[in-house]
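in:
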């Protein structure tokens, strides 16, 4: 196969913009438009580089693979493979071979390959980077990657190889590297946390309000977001905080909406817990700003962008320990890190947020003013990414 190798270009002598090959299962494309925009936002904002994206979509048990361009330097790829990771490496190796052939056919060259999840795209990206002779960087998405590594010990040798060959590992949050360090023998000197890119990053100060809480999530994921535990904790806390209320924003299918209604009904919480429907993206920061705190005790959470949006809005957060944004900022400065499987701890956390609302909002305001949240802004994430790619190109 006539693969065109691309020479590594170091930042010191770079005479052209480095070109990055992205492999992502989470890039909105012509096949599945409703994917998270996180990777697309990063690619759009990091305009110091040229980007080429293969957007990957597992579609069925079939063996065939098709590539469909849907924009300049953007190609949607539909590949057949069984569900639930059956014969995972067999089908991903076939996908890597197909993409290498497509790269050769298009006479493409790259300076860096960026696979956006270790356990899926990483298996493809490691092979492609090796054949192209270019540096390889790999993201870690804690929810998917930690789950698969835990459930598939038979594949850990492959994932260890991916982690070992990557010039840099880019977890969405520090806890994800912690979770995989022992299982995959991660080299911590290669770990550079890269937050999820927000759509809006305007900072606002929040005044002390009535004891009103907000939660924002897609109702289709109510189990994972801890909706039942949250509603029950609010119902019990009403005995101490009689004016407490919770507004839950988010769309979802009819079945999920009915189930959310049943959760509220079972907790006899209809008078103080309300489903508010979808929250338009452009109104997220302003809406969050009006509440005492955000509460989302997720059982699993790669990052949880709404936590950061709450901090941009100036309000404290109840988040889950060892998940989401845990590890970026001290919990005592921004809210409370709960055990999402401990009902009493969720209630304790909510009470802590309400009783300390003024202090926590002041602390978050100080973080805003001192630049303590800059790493989560668009400009801050771009700086982190540019430095990481430059480091990978330099071979440091």
């Amino acid at each position: 196969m006539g693969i065109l190798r691309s020479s590594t270009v170091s930042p010191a002598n770079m005479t052209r913009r480095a070109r990055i090959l992205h492999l992502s299962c989470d890039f909105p494309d012509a096949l599945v438009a409703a994917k998270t925009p996180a990777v697309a936002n990063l690619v759009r904002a990091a305009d110091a580089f040229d980007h080429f994206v293969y957007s990957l979509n597992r579609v069925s048990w079939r063996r065939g693979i098709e590539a469909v361009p849907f924009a300049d330097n953007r190609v949607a790829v539909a590949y057949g493979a069984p569900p639930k990771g059956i014969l995972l490496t067999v089908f991903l190796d076939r996908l890597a071979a197909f993409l290498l052939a497509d790269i050769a056919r298009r006479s493409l060259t790259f300076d860096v390959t960026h696979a956006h999840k270790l356990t899926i795209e990483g298996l493809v990206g490691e092979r492609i980077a090796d054949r192209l002779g270019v540096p390889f960087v790999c993201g870690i998405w804690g929810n998917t990657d930690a789950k698969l590594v835990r459930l598939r010990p038979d594949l850990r040798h492959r994932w260890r190889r991916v982690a070992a060959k990557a010039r840099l590992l880019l977890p969405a949050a520090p806890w994800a590297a912690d979770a995989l360090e022992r299982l995959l023998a991660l080299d911590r000197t290669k770990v550079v946390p890269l937050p999820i890119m927000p759509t809006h990053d305007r900072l606002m100060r929040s005044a002390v309000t009535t004891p009103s809480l907000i939660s924002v999530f897609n109702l289709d994921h109510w189990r994972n977001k801890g909706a039942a535990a949250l509603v029950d904790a609010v119902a019990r806390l009403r005995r101490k905080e009689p004016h407490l209320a919770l507004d839950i924003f988010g769309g979802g299918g009819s079945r999920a909406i009915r189930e959310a209604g049943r959760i509220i009904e079972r907790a006899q919480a209809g008078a103080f817990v309300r489903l508010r429907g979808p929250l338009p993206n452009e109104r997220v920061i302003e809406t969050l700003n009006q509440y005492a705190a955000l509460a989302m005790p997720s059982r699993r959470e790669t990052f949880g962008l709404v936590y950061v949006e709450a901090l941009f809005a100036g309000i404290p957060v109840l988040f889950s320990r060892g998940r989401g944004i845990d590890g970026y900022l001290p919990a005592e400065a921004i809210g409370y890190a709960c055990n999402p499987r401990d009902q009493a701890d969720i209630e304790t956390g909510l009470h802590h947020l309400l009783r300390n609302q003024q202090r926590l909002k002041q602390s978050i305001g100080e973080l805003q003013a001192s630049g303590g949240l800059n790493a989560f802004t668009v400009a801050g994430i771009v700086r982190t990414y540019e430095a990481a790619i430059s480091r990978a190109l330099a071979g440091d």
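note: The chain has two domains: 11-198+378-394, 212-373.
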